[in-house]
Design brief:
Layout: H1 2-14, E1 27-40, H2 64-80, E2 92-98, H3 101-108, E3 118-122, E4 132-138, E5 142-150, E6 165-172, E7 176-184, H4 192-216, E8 221-227, H5 235-240, E9 243-244, E10 255-257, H6 260-264, E11 270-272, E12 275-277, E13 280-285, E14 297-303, E15 324-325, E16 328-329, E17 339-346
Parallel strand pairs: 1-2, 7-8, 9-10
Antiparallel strand pairs: 1-17, 2-4, 3-4, 5-6, 6-7, 8-13, 10-13, 11-12, 14-17, 15-16
């Protein structure tokens, strides 16, 4: 039975991918995705964090029933990400706006994700609300070698606390070592100009993580993913982090922003005041570029904005269909669309 399952999985990983290329060559594929889950909180009071809003007596009237519906909604979306090319769904998925490890454990136990064999990489967040990031991964494809947490501190702001940057190193399909950094940079609360130093600080921290990985190996395959709260053209992304806008502009030991082309084409993952932003980005290191598919290489980036994820009518028609409108529960998914990239290599 195990042999039959492995053969079926191989077909799922090669199906459709070969159609993009010469018919004589087939490719293995991996879907690397990111999703802001919009306040995935449990209903339990955590005494060390400020989670009062998402308790049964809080303004959102958060309940076991609403929590279960939210989990079902999230699981149903995640299972569909990238399936037009890879029926097995996301190989790796970074998530943010999660309260703790427990809510991610509940997520991967929720159908239809419960059948996918996802593991979890997580480190506690210093954020005042407890909100952090995590990586879920298909355990039959990705073997975690280690995790660590990079913590952002801002000079002159000793009490500043924000989400950690999660660094996960592992081996994909036994052939490629990947280093994945999952992030949620500080928001623009208080105004873009006032909050800019916070995102610049997050970019510097991320760049230091990248440089440390490159110092160990000039061929390090690094994937940065997250809610950057800035667009691909922002100075924090282009100048501070150093993410280039095209593969041919990406230098040795450099970074390429796979989201930039989609952003220039007018696509967005988050809507605000009738304007679209592409703040949910995925950036890759230079060794993931090129056409030598003997190991995994970047193929494409996409915003997963299927119609069922959109508000159907009213002022916000076409926006992401979110969980709450103000404090009113409307039962949608998230205020962000998921994004993903495809990696491919020659099939064995």
């Amino acid at each position: 039975m195990a042999k039959i399952f492995r053969f079926a999985l191989l077909l799922a990983l090669t199906l459709n991918v070969s159609l993009c290329f010469a018919q004589k060559q087939k490719y293995m594929a991996a879907c690397i995705a990111f999703y802001n889950l919009e306040n995935l909180f449990d209903t339990i009071d955590s005494p060390n964090t400020d989670d009062a809003e998402f308790l049964p007596g809080g303004p959102y009237r958060w309940s076991a029933e609403r929590y279960a519906q939210k989990q079902r909604n999230m699981a149903s979306v995640i299972r569909k990400i990238g399936t037009e090319m890879l029926p097995a769904g996301p190989t790796l998925l970074g998530v943010c706006e999660i309260e703790n490890r427990l809510v991610v454990e509940d997520l991967v136990k929720t159908a239809p994700l419960s059948e996918m064999g996802y593991g979890i990489a997580y480190e506690p967040s210093p954020d005042a609300r407890g909100v952090g990031v995590a990586l879920i991964y298909q355990q039959n494809r990705f073997r975690v070698l280690g995790t660590r947490s990079a913590i952002l501190s801002i000079e002159g702001m000793p009490d500043f606390r924000t989400r950690n940057q999660l660094v996960v190193s592992g081996v994909l399909d036994g052939v490629d070592t990947l280093h994945v950094v999952v992030m949620h940079w500080p928001s623009k609360r208080g105004g873009e100009k006032r909050s800019k130093p916070l995102r610049d600080g997050a970019a510097k921290l991320c760049r230091s993580v990248v440089d440390s990985l490159y110092a160990v190996s000039a061929n390090a395959k690094i994937i940065l993913m997250g809610d950057f709260n800035d667009n691909p053209e922002s100075a924090s992304v282009q100048k501070v982090l150093g993410a280039r806008t095209a593969p041919e502009k990406t230098e040795r030991k450099g970074l390429y922003n796979t989201s930039y082309k989609s952003y220039r084409e007018g696509n967005g993952s988050y809507a605000w005041n009738d304007s679209w932003d592409l703040i949910d980005q995925i950036i890759v290191s230079e060794p993931l570029l090129g056409k030598d598919y003997s190991t995994y290489k970047f193929l494409r980036y996409k915003v997963f904005n299927a119609e069922f994820l959109k508000q159907k009518d009213g002022r916000y028609a076409g926006y992401p269909w979110r969980t709450f409108s103000g404090t009113t529960f409307i039962g949608g998914y998230s205020d962000h669309f998921p994004t993903y990239i495809m990696l491919i290599r020659n099939a064995e």
